[in-house]
Amino acid sequence: MNGLSTWELVLISAMAVLVLFWFGPGIKATLAQSQQAEKDWRGFLLPMAAVVLFVLFLIMMV
To answer: CA 33 to CA 48: how far, in whole Å?
Structure first.
């Protein structure tokens, strides 16, 4: 299988840079907003624990 040609690599690189510039301001605003948000570890850990327990249950069923 042949590798990508030069113009394909240039096109993919240009698209990656454009995507970074397109999403950059939104990511920056989201990070600033998350720094000011109230920390809710219970809302994160409870669903994660449920998922882990469910996966362990599925593994034990096999």
So the answer is: 23
